[in-house]
Amino acid sequence: MQQRSLKRRLFQLSFLLLFVLAPILDIFRLDLNLGHFILFGQDWKLNLTEFTQLSSGALVMRVLWVALLPIIFTVVLFLLIAWRWGRLYCGWLCPHFLAVETINNLMKRASGKLSFWDKAPIPEQQQDGTQYKRNSWWWIPTVLAIVGFAFFWALIAITYLLPPKEIYTGLITFSLSRYEMIFLIAVTFAFTIEFTLARHLFCRFACAVGVFQSLVWMGNKKGMVVGYNATHAKDCKSCDKSCEHACPMRLKPRTIKRKMFTCTQCFACVDSCTQVQAQYDKKPLLKMLINDCALDKSQRDFGRKAEIPLHCFEDED
How far apart are alpha carbons 90 and 88 in whole angstroms? Predict the structure, then answer.
């Protein structure tokens, strides 16, 4: 479990590094000064001024190869992954979700809550072994993290639009243009509000990348879900809902798939349940299920109960 959590964190940090370096290394960015995209160091443009010199066949091929096919291939691959595994990108790669989780953990230490909108704090000592001793001094690193992430996001965003060398040089030498300063201040302010008050709402309903993943995933009844072994539901009676407290999206993992619409497949609830049940030498009641094993979770959305294959909740190898 700790190994899986560490692996996920490494994936997130690696993708964050790629996210930061992509414009610097000209892997991908939109240069507003040049008026076109740059992809792997090459100008990615249609050369519209040359259209009058092309035959109709050459024109179609240019539009197809330069614009449509790369976009279609990327979108189809992304949606196929979402169809089978749900919001895998969100839970394992997305830099924004890494920021959400970091702020969650700091805010829990400061107030015992994952959000200002939570009605009650979580237990300081949870049955899965997690301990968050509340101390108001944690508000200092919480606020610093919120503002820091907000400014960092604004800075990275502008390097995707203008030459990174120009931006970083201007930042270091205090010679950014008026419009560059306005962009950084405005975007930093917007992200500060979002990270403080609405980071979970943004991931759930405002992020187009996340919502489309969820919509595609909901259409696949055999897509990967958090399965609940209801035959041993009595083992939940003495639990303090550690699995719900562990979920960075504040979901209830034992509920039906429709109410798990924004699940990021991060495994946090599964690992928490495993820790709780291990104290009583029992098997976990939550497990990531896929294919026929996932049908029960989907069918319950429509008031039906599917027959779960016996092997679904067996121990992993």
Answer: 5
